[in-house]
Amino acid sequence: MSNDNTTHFGFKQVPVHEKVTLVRGVFDSVAGQYDVMNDLMSLGIHRIWKRVAVQLANVREGERVLDLAGGTGDLTVLFEKRVGSSGQVVLADINAAMLRTGRDRLIDRGLAANIRYAQVNAECLPFADNSFDCVCIGFGLRNVTDKEAALRSMHRVLKPGGRVIVLEFSHPVDPVTEKVYDFYSFNILPKIGAFVAKDEDSYRYLAESIRMHPKQDELKRMMEAVGLERCEYFNMSQGIVAVHRGYKF
Ligand code: SAM
User: Fold this and answer.
1) Confidence of residue 25 (pLDDT cuts 50, 70, 90)
2) Quick check: is 20 in a domain?
3) Into how many domains does the chain fold?
4) Is the C-beta atom of 75 inside 6 A of ligand 1?
5) Which atom of ligand 1 approaches the CA of 74 most closely?
6) What are the tens digits of pLDDT across the range 107-156?
């Protein structure tokens, strides 16, 4: 957060208490087109980023996973396969429209028995201490107003030996990628949003929120500050996306 009273919403400064409503507006607006937009915007590469994140989580059969800010459930589907029928995945999100879209999609795929749904704010998780083997937040942390509170809450609900995975847009590691990516994000992406999702502003917010997100090393320090150990990160697509991983011991 920027100071006691304001925080950023994309490049705008807004009162802290308003950010959650503004973010909700974005995801209420895009929920119906969210999956198709992900494929279009990333040319399907988001599927690879998600697979890599799940591999790095190294989840085993019988484990309990929290897919936080899980939206329409892409990561839940991948985790569900790994934990099997003796495990459980909780798909949790602050936004009812995203959760509803996700739940309908997972039920249509015949996935239900080991999946639970919860409408929660990542900043104050309503789960018991030490209750998950893995807490994963995919493309969600950037939208949370108080990221430190969310990381603290994620650490609290993690079992000793468990790991936190943060999959998030990050910062390109070389200037050429950065230039091309900036051009794409601010000139092309909002136009795709306008055309497909009829919502240019939400996709401009997406580009801005990515620029405001902490850089790789800073996020690693934030994870260490809440008590996560052996923290490291893995850049993908030249740092456009990074997976951060930390353990609780
Ligand atoms: N994880 C999914 C994926 O990778 O496709 C969805 C990511 S979507 C870009 C971001 C999600 O974060 C939205 O569904 C939004 O509702 C959720 N979100 C935003 N702020 C949140 C908060 N404070 N607590 C929980 N979820 C939040």
Assistant:
1) confident
2) no
3) 1
4) yes
5) 5
6) 999 887 899 999 999 999 999 999 999 999 999 999 999 999 999 999 99
- Residue 19 CA, ligand 1 centroid: distance in Å: 13
Q: Is 102 in the pocket of ligand 1 (CB under 6 A)?
A: no
Give burial (CB, 10 Å; 0-12/13-18/19+) of 21: exposed
Distance, in Å, from the CA atom of 50 to the CA atom of 73, rounded to the nearest integer, reads: 11
Domain assignment of residue 71, yes or no = yes
Q: Is 140 close to ligand 1, i.e. is its CB under 6 Å away?
A: yes
Give per-residue pLDDT as tens, 190-212.
999 898 888 898 889 999 999 99
Q: Whose CA is nearest to atom 19 of ligand 1?
A: 143
CA of 138 to the centre of ligand 1 (A): 7
Examine residue 93 and state whether it is found in any structural domain, yes or no: yes
Asked if the structure places residue 36 within a domain, the reply is no
CATH of the domain at 222: 3.40.50.150
Q: Which domain holds residue 227?
A: 46-172+213-247
| Pair 141, 214: CB distance under 8 Å | no
Chain centre distance of CA 58: 18
